[in-house]
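Example record

The entry below shows one chain as it appears in the dataset: sequence first, then structure tokens.
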Amino acid sequence: MTTATHALTRTIDGNKVVPTEGTWQIDPAHSSVEFLARHLMVTKVRGSFADVTGTIDVAKNPLDSSLSVTIATGSVSTGAADRDDHLVSPDFFDVAAYPEMTFVSTGIAEKGDAWILNGDLTIKGITKPVALDFQFMGLVDDPWGNPKAAFSGSTEILREEWGLTWNVSLESGGVLVSKKVTIEIEVQATPAS
């Protein structure tokens, strides 16, 4: 964790550093939502979404805080144009019909030095609960004096629960694309003006 002495942080429970209460805007230029799936059951393939926006409302009691994130599904990138074209098609995200996916928090719980962020993830019009392990990484000023709060989180989902069911069976057993997907989130946020 970075500095704990910034004016926009506070200490709770004697040792946990959290942001001061207020509204924070996610900085899309310095935030990422990435995913990892297995291809042919063995190789890890990573992708990311470039267009991520949202708001973090930090409450006096951190457990009452909330988060709302919107991700443009058409901003997906895996480094391979053919694969990206397939991901935006009706086989996967169906961007024409579902241009956005969202995450809206429903509650926060403590987990040692970290937190569990519970919320509703909506993909292709299907909403399911998920739980993210996340940490507040600290708050520092950028070179221009702008405060930046950093958060890091991750979870695993079964993509078929959100209608992402396309696959191909392999002669050797298994499937072309893993059903389990890891989601990793890195967020920088700035105080709302």
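Notes for this example: Residues 9-191 form a domain with the Lipocalin fold (CATH 2.40.128.110). The chain has one domain: 9-191.
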